Amino acid sequence: MSSCFPISIFSFTTFSITNARLLSSSVFCFASAMIFLLPPFIFEELMGLNVGITGLLVLGAPVGLVIFSRISGKLNDGHKNSMFSLLGLGIIAISLLGLAFSSQQAPAILITFFLFIYGIGGGFFQPASIAAIMQIGNNKNQSSLGALQRMVRNIAIASGTAIGSTIINLLSQKMVIGIRISWIITLFFVLIIICLSRIFNRKEQII
Asked: pTM of the prediction?
């Protein structure tokens, strides 16, 4: 009986590196779920802004992502995937740090600025991460790798949305605290994956 995914993808030399890359991708998707879930609560519930203005303010992340995905794609020749992934995660961590410790009195444009910074990080991280994962294995495994990556990303997005929604619901009377906890949890995951990425990047260079 054949397995759903070729076992050769997870050979001894590439198993931990594959897991690290998939884990990085899943953490990014988890963070993205939070990035799209929480800002409307900040702008509408905490700042009292209307839906139209909120719709414009939350564009910071996707605009940054689109612009810097193109820029990073031009700068990356295919040999800088690990560097760009790590750089992107670092920028994402900075944006989450700013969002986590922004006060309730912070101007809306500051929140949008941090969302844009997140988009910059995502623009550097996402194309490089996808390219790095697809370089694992051979051409016969590309479809399986793509399917595995999409499955992991979907699970991470669903998890981020579920956890963020649950925290907001449980702390609906203390929404500021709930939002801050959600940002801090996300930042914690990103910092962990940055540390793991540095470890496995060194391992990859040795291999």
From this structure: 0.87
Query: What is the rounded distance in angstroms from the CA atom of residue 23 to the CA atom of residue 27?
Result: 6
Q: Which of 73, 49, 61 is nearest to 126 (CA)?
A: 73
Residue 92 near residue 190, CB atoms below 8 Å: yes
Two tokens at 155? 């699970």
Report whether 186 contacts 31 (CB < 8 A).
yes
Sign of torsion, CA 129 131 137 140? positive
Q: SS3 of 117, please? A: helix
- Judge whether 137 and 85 are in contact, CB under 8 Å: no
**pLDDT computed for residue 17 by the predictor:** 61
CA distance 34 to 114: 13
Instruction: Give the separation between CA 190 and CA 171, rounded to whole angstroms.
Output: 23
